[in-house]
Design goal:
28% strand; two-stranded antiparallel ribbon; mainly beta; globular
Length: 89
């Protein structure tokens, strides 16, 4: 399954949602989510799989990949095919 990879202060995780950092990475260039977008509810209610704390404001898009056996919010290391690109500083 095609996934989006996000970097947190605690490491990387992968998810099928392209917008967990507030930008929709399904588009090139990414589009910022409008303030009234219903996807904000998912962002605001998603917790870091390692710490259990909300991810809002603490994740950056890192790249994409494919994972053969996917489950929600996979933490690394996971087997994947693709490239993780460092976010621009």
């Amino acid at each position: 399954m095609f996934v989006y990879v996000y970097e947190t202060p605690n490491g990387l995780f992968a998810d099928f949602r392209p917008y967990l950092d507030g930008q929709d990475h399904a588009f090139t260039p990414p589009r910022a989510l409008p303030g009234n977008d219903p996807r904000w509810e998912k962002i605001l209610n998603t917790n870091d799989p390692r710490t259990g704390k909300p991810i809002y404001g603490s994740v950056e898009f890192a790249g994409t990949g494919d994972v053969p056996d996917y489950h929600e919010l996979m933490i690394f290391p996971v087997p994947y095919d693709g490239e993780v690109q460092s976010p621009a500083s």
